[in-house]
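Need a sequence for this fold. Nothing fancy.
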């Protein structure tokens, strides 16, 4: 089962609100997911995601692939840099 970190849309018409979820790649965008990892409200100023860094890192370490948009959100929040540094340290140690 391939796991992707992606956005699931919630909210009403013209008022988007997204959940960052870990989901099986075969499930539809707003369908069944494995875990909610955070939220993203693009209408806030500034539009920063509210994520659970420990849970996101757990999924990334297990091989979950983030979508392009989620990767951008992870970079904005600093989680992606943390993941990259941990991965580089693990590579250097082995």
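Here you go.
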């Amino acid at each position: 089962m391939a796991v992707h970190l992606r956005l699931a849309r919630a909210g009403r018409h013209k008022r988007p609100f997204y959940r960052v979820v870990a989901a099986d790649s075969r499930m539809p965008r707003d369908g069944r997911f494995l875990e909610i990892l955070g939220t993203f409200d693009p209408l806030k100023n500034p539009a920063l995601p509210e994520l659970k860094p420990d849970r996101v890192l757990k999924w990334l370490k297990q091989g979950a692939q983030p979508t392009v948009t989620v990767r951008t959100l992870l970079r904005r929040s600093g989680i992606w840099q943390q993941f990259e540094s941990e991965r580089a340290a693990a590579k250097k140690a082995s």
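For context: The two ends are 27 Å apart (CA to CA).
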